[in-house]
UniProtKB/TrEMBL annotation:
Highest taxon above the source species: Bacteria
Name listed for the protein in its UniProt record: Flagellar protein FlgN
Source species: Alteraurantiacibacter lauratis
InterPro entries assigned to the protein according to its UniProt record, in alphabetical order: FlgN-like_sf (IPR036679)
Keyword annotations: Cell projection, Cilium, Flagellum
Length: 111
């Protein structure tokens, strides 16, 4: 295998490793409720997604497939944590205001 044919796979694998690192940092920022770190993670994820769009090898090897699954799993974990935090904040705001749903978007009424 020449360097030219293995380069896209190495680039993809490296980008996926970086994405996993950013997703781990995001998880830690969520746990610490560190808004600044979350903003930085969002920028990093966006940049990495652009890189991943650019490196689409014709065939994804086993290592990259494993990294993709790990990134997908970590992103799903982070999404669940974000949703739990959002629900917790909403519940606390409702309790403070004693008006449930005050901070929710109004629902469309069906006639």
């Amino acid at each position: 295998m020449t360097a030219e044919t293995s380069s896209p796979a190495l680039s993809l694998a490296e980008s996926l490793r970086q994405m996993l690192a950013v997703l781990e940092t995001e998880r830690q920022a969520l746990a610490a409720m560190d808004v600044d770190a979350l903003v930085l993670c969002t920028g990093s994820k966006s940049a990495l997604l652009s890189e991943l769009e650019d490196c689409r090898p014709p065939v994804i090897d086993a290592e990259c497939r494993s990294l993709l699954e790990a990134a997908r799993h970590q992103n799903e974990v982070n999404r669940k944590i974000r949703n739990l935090l959002a629900a917790n904040v909403a519940a606390r705001l409702d309790a403070l205001t004693r008006q449930p749903g005050l901070y929710r978007a109004p629902q469309a009424r069906i006639a």
